[in-house]
Amino acid sequence: VEVLNMQQNVGTLDKIGRAALSMALFAVACKRQDKLGVLAAYSAGMLISSASSGYCPLYKVFKVNTVGKPF
């Protein structure tokens, strides 16, 4: 069984931005009951997941790491 290497690659300011955007998208998802609402809910879930875990799979693909960086 291969263990996933999920080393943190999302910095503090990045986490704050992701959490804020996630809350805004969640508000959109609550107001809209159509495909856009579903997309907003899915996006909010992905953002809050990466903000809380400190790991972004896309950052790993593109070799980005914002840990310890001011911006």
The average pLDDT score comes to 93
Run of helices and strands? HHH
The secondary-structure class comes to: mainly alpha
What gap, in angstroms, lies between the N and C termini?
Answer: 37 Å
Per DSSP, the total helix count is 3
Number of distinct beta strands:
0
Main sheet attributes: strand count, strand direction, barrel closure = none
Strand content: under 5%
Helix percent band: 55-70%
Radius of gyration: 14 Å
Low-confidence stretches: none
Could you say which overall geometry the principal axes of the C-alpha atoms support?
elongated
How would you characterize the overall build of this protein?
- There is one protein chain.
- With 71 residues, the protein is mostly helical.
- Helices cover 62% and strands 0% of the residues.
- It has helices spanning 12-31, 35-53, 57-61.
- Helix 1 packs antiparallel against helix 2 (35-53).
- The protein is elongated, with a radius of gyration of 14 Å.
- The chain starts with 11 loop residues before the first helix and ends in a 10-residue tail after the last helix.
- The mean pLDDT is 93.
Give a summary of the structure in a few sentences.
The protein is mainly alpha-helical. The chain has helices at residues 12-31, 35-53, 57-61. Helix 1 packs antiparallel against helix 2.
Which features would summarize this protein structure in a list?
71 residues, mainly alpha, 3 helices, elongated
Task: Give the arrangement of secondary structure elements.
Blueprint: H1 12-31, H2 35-53, H3 57-61
Helix pairs in contact: 1-2
